[in-house]
Amino acid sequence: MRWIIKIILFPISLVLSILTAFLTFLLGIGTALLYLLMMFCIFGAIASFMQKEVAIGIEALVLGFLLSPYGIPMVGAAVIAFLQEINEAIKSI
């Protein structure tokens, strides 16, 4: 009876493994692109502060934080970790 459950869960585990590998690849590329955008936001914030546009500078800093590795890419990493945990739970059955 246990082997029937393993046969049923194997395709799900295979799809989750492929999905996490693909999402990890996309996260690496996306993080690099977001890092470049973050740098533009930081430089824009510095330029705004130099021109005494404080509100725009603060907005640029907040946007730069969201684009940094501690912002949106961290959400992606949490989703990938969640999918990996589900996959490990299926494999342990």
What does this 3D model show about the protein?
The chain crosses the membrane at residues 7-26, 32-49, 61-83. InterPro entries: DUF5699 (IPR043753). This is Succinate dehydrogenase. Keywords: Membrane, Transmembrane, Transmembrane helix. It comes from Catonella massiliensis. The two termini are 12 Å apart. With 93 residues, the protein is an all-alpha fold. The longest helix is centred in the first third of the chain and has 49 residues, at 2-50. Helix 1 (2-50) packs antiparallel against helix 2 (54-67) and helix 1 runs antiparallel to helix 3. The protein has three helices and no strands. The mean pLDDT is 92. The protein has one domain (1-92).
- Indicate the structural class: mainly alpha
Question: In DSSP terms, counting alpha (H) and pi (I) runs of 4 or more, how many helices?
Answer: 3
Q: Which strand-content bin applies to the residues?
A: under 5%
Cα-atom Rg, whole angstroms?
Answer: 20 Å
Instruction: Write down the overall mean pLDDT.
Output: 92
How many individual β-strands?
0
Looking at the structure, what is the overall shape?
Answer: rod-shaped
List SSEs in N-to-C order: HHH
In total, how many domains does the architecture comprise?
Answer: 1
Low-confidence stretches: none
